[in-house]
Amino acid sequence: GAYAQTYKGYSSKAQLGSIMETMQGKKEVSDSLEASSFLGTGLHEKIETKMKEDGAEIERLIRFYDDRAGEITGHIDAILTDASGSKSPVDIKTVGNNVKSAISRVVGKGGEANYEDIKDKMKGGYSKYKIEEVRSQLNLYMAALKEGGEEVKDAEVHFYDAFGEGNDKPIKIRFKFDEALLKRDMAAIAAAREQLLKENKTFAKTG
């Protein structure tokens, strides 16, 4: 976590920080609803507590190692376990009502959907960005659980209204593990880290 935040600044540093924070599930400073947010943080904890009461495991630290990208750590908000013991990591997102409404239109009246069924319906804009961002994040979580020898079923994101009290019905999108996406994300992190090392060497020579 500190690694990603320490290196924000120059172009490749910002790129690395952005990628790492996305993969680790960190709140974006640019997203006022998810950032400082006493509002978002308190609501997030309230939802996690309710999920824990319903039997979910919450706030598990994960570590994932990739030969190119190195070690990445993060926290899974919640993990659901089905009757067969298969795991489904869950990420909780608190978003503005307009964003939730936009995502709702893509997902449909039922309020739940599989990513594969809606990906072609998504247009550009912030709602698509949020869905794709959390897809990479959850894909990493699934990879970490699998690397640890656990059976993984799928992953879910639950979108809640940031101005609600956690009692609104969340919009849920499910994702299957995508090996190709993981490789692309790890390659992006590795490339950003390499660029960062080059820049640091340049700074050392000129400084």
What do you see in this structure?
There is one protein chain. This protein is globular. A six-stranded mixed sheet has the order 1-2-3-5-6-4, sandwiched between helices. It is 48% helix and 22% strand. It has helices at residues 2-6, 11-24, 38-53, 97-107, 115-118, 126-147, 179-206; strands at residues 57-66, 70-81, 87-95, 112-114, 155-161, 171-175. It has 207 residues and is an alpha/beta fold. It has seven helices and six strands; from the N terminus they run αααβββαβααββα. It starts with a helix and ends with a helix.
Using brief descriptors, characterize the structure shown.
alpha/beta; 48% helix; disordered N terminus; 207 residues; six-stranded mixed beta sheet; globular; 7 helices
